[in-house]
């Protein structure tokens, strides 16, 4: 990549835009290392701001002058038309999405390897496991683990095993969450839910098998590289705690028991921080733990993960009402139909959005001192809350 050091003031809008296109192309080709991707992401974010500032200046000069400058009138008009698309607040997630796509592909390649082949006996359950895990998903938990790992100086590929284990657990919870005895959702990610495609018994067992496989993958970190042994044991300890009654199971139990009831904010907070927040916070912590983070780093990232994980479920509640069926990959307003305890039900949509925004701001305030990762983890937090709007 050339011209990183080029002074923005000396560059015309067209030159900045051209450079931006080069950066985006390089990101989309997907053959960069994570460090290169992040450097491109950073440069692209700066370029977007630079383009937006140049457009603002062009707009001001159009307003202030009855007769536009000789050489700029037609290009200014063209630029102003483009302004909408290059506003930084819309474009930053586009960069992040490129980064997420790249890391998601790496985690998916590993998932494809660790999941038993569909034709291997007992094939019904193996096919159901692959259908559940490899059928889409944003892979936010692995991306969080990877970024936290890098933010704490972690290097190497071991983190992808952690990412894969997190996705296996997450997808196990989704299979069970959709079962008729739970949320009774017949669609997930735009496809029939696992129990609809494979039957309830197979879905239940596929979920059990994914949970078990997650621990097999995590434990293999210690057996394949003894220097990871202690860390693997600590990570297994944390994730086992989070998957159980003190985490996801606890939250899901309260979620079920609260259907049709009017619950206080403290109960709703418990549900959201346990059924969803706990695994998201754990993803961030596992990345930091594998990197051998210092205590202050681990504590700051844990607070970031706690706030972000809580915000994630508040946003999920909002999206259930505001997003389209196509965006949700299933029908809308399922929570209302199930009489679920949700933030919009308790405090209305507007206050729920404010709650999610303030949690994300709190999360971002924990990132000071992580250098460029402050920006990346901050952008990911912004992306989570932007999904609500
Ligand atoms: C959905 O999680 C279930 C919740 C915990 C709210 P995600 O929104 O991360 O689901 P996928 O994996 O991207 O489909
Ligand atoms: C899901 O919460 C939490 C877990 C799967 C543990 P939801 O029930 O709100 O998730 P969706 O809306 O079905 O994805
Ligand atoms: Mg549920
Ligand atoms: Mg559900
Ligand atoms: Mg939901």
Task: Describe the overall structure.
With 389 residues, this protein is an all-alpha fold. It folds into 2 domains: 84 residues, no CATH class; 295 residues, Farnesyl Diphosphate Synthase (Orthogonal Bundle), CATH 1.10.600. The chain contains 17 helices and 2 strands. Strands 1-2 form a two-stranded antiparallel ribbon. A hairpin with a 2-residue loop joins strand 1 and strand 2. The chain starts with 12 loop residues before the first helix and ends with a helix.
Domain tally: 2
Order of helices and strands: HHHHHHHEEHHHHHHHHHH
- Spans of at least 5 consecutive residues whose pLDDT stays below 50 are 1-6, 66-92
Q: Can you give the mean pLDDT?
A: 88
Helix content, binned percent: over 70%
What shape does the CA trace take? globular
Largest sheet: 2 strands, antiparallel
Bound molecules: 3-methylbut-3-enyl trihydrogen diphosphate, magnesium ion
- Separation, N- and C-terminal Cα atoms: 35 Å
Number of strands: 2
Structural class, please?
Answer: mainly alpha
CATH top level of the largest domain is Mainly Alpha
Number of helices: 17
Please identify which CATH superfamily of the largest domain we are dealing with: Farnesyl Diphosphate Synthase
The name of the CATH architecture of the largest domain is Orthogonal Bundle
What fold name goes in the CATH topology slot of the largest domain?
Answer: Farnesyl Diphosphate Synthase
Question: How much of the residues is beta strand, in percent?
Answer: under 5%
Q: Record the strand order, biggest sheet.
A: 1-2
Spatial extent as radius of gyration = 23 Å
